[in-house]
Design a protein that fits this description.
Layout lengths: L2 E5 L5 E3 L5 E7 L5 E8 L2 E9 L4 E7 L7 H12 L4 E6 L8 E10 L10 E9 L3 E8 L4 E2 L19 E2 L6 E2 L2 E2 L1 E7 L5 E8 L2 E2 L2 E6 L2 E6 L7 E2 L3 E6 L6 E6 L5 E3 L13 E2 L2 E8 L7 E10 L3
Antiparallel strand pairs: 1-2, 1-7, 3-6, 4-5, 6-9, 7-8, 8-9, 10-26, 11-12, 13-14, 15-25, 16-21, 16-24, 16-26, 17-20, 18-19, 18-25, 21-22, 22-23
């Protein structure tokens, strides 16, 4: 059985496939494109093709099957969705299978009287901010560094094979720097963004993106760079529809925007390509850098 749940902007989760709250008669899970063409003789050339912002609609029932008053359930549901934006999580084949996500906002929720079964059954509409996406992530945090490799000369490409390596005993070095890498695999060619979370300490960290043996993009800070203390974490993120770079301090609770300090001659923000994507992070002075790469693989429909 397929399953849906919601996550609000506070991180609270709510099942909408339960006996008391049930989302059904669903439409809008597929996709529709906005296209434009120009005529060339007796044929047409495609100028542009973009996914439409197709709402997901259906009915949501609030019942007392688990001993809850439907009106109280409705009120609590409103308080939950009022903490927008929301993440709609969809499990097409059941809870123990692959899940897909979409950032949404509830733009319609009717309210009527109890029906003959003692339940509220209301029309609801979710308007999306993103396509469906699957989250993939890889991290080198800990003793074992996933896919540790070293970058060698020539075209500055990584070796063909990365093997998990104990970074403390056999660090891989090039030019006096340790470059640690993780891999994210994407089955589709789409504009799938990547979020990098780099933990301090790190002296002037910089990051690279490879597909196969080809260097696709790099990122770093301008000038003398930025040094992260052991309490600081750098987030380089383009998964929320915009690009942002910030450093948060776990000791003070403060977060500062460092986007203006980036090297604008580099890409900084990475997009997953089809196939194996290798993300490498290094720091000046050859110190170890812990980081996590999170990719959002976009799908028109799932």
């Amino acid at each position: 059985m397929r399953y849906f749940k919601l996550i609000n902007n506070k991180g609270d989760e709510l099942s909408i496939t339960s006996q008391s709250i049930f989302f059904h008669d669903i439409e809008g899970l597929g996709f529709e494109e906005e296209t434009s063409y120009r005529r060339v003789g007796q044929t047409w050339w495609l100028n542009n093709a973009l996914l439409r912002q197709t709402p997901i609609t259906g009915k949501i029932s609030f019942t007392d099957l688990e001993g809850h008053d439907p009106y109280v359930l409705f009120s609590d549901f409103y308080l939950f969705i009022n903490k927008a934006p929301l993440t709609l999580v969809y499990y097409p084949c059941g809870l123990d299978q692959t899940s897909y996500r979409k950032q949404v906002r509830v733009t319609k929720l009717d309210k009527s009287e109890l029906n003959i079964y003692g339940a509220l059954e209301e029309d609801i509409s979710f308007t999306p901010y993103t396509p469906w996406y699957m989250v993939v992530s890889a991290s080198n945090v800990g003793t074992i560094v996933t896919n540790t490799g070293w970058v060698w000369g020539g075209d500055n490409s990584p070796p063909l094979v990365f093997e998990p390596t104990d970074a403390e005993s056999t660090p891989a070095k090039f030019g006096g720097e340790i470059r640690q890498s993780v891999q994210l695999y994407s089955p589709v060619e789409s504009s799938s963004p990547i979020k990098l979370t780099i933990k301090g300490p790190a002296v002037n960290p910089f990051w690279s993106h490879y597909v196969g043996n080809k260097l696709i993009s790099t990122g770093r800070f301008a000038g003398e760079g930025v040094n992260l203390s052991s309490e600081e974490t750098l987030v380089v993120d383009n998964t929320n529809g915009h690009t942002g770079m910030s450093i948060s301090n776990s000791a003070t609770g403060e977060t500062r925007n460092v986007y203006a300090l980036r090297d604008f001659d580099t890409g900084c923000f990475f997009i997953l390509k089809e196939g194996a994507n290798t993300i490498s992070v290094a720091a000046s002075g050859g110190s170890r850098v812990d980081f996590t790469a999170e990719g959002h693989i976009y799908y028109g429909t799932v």
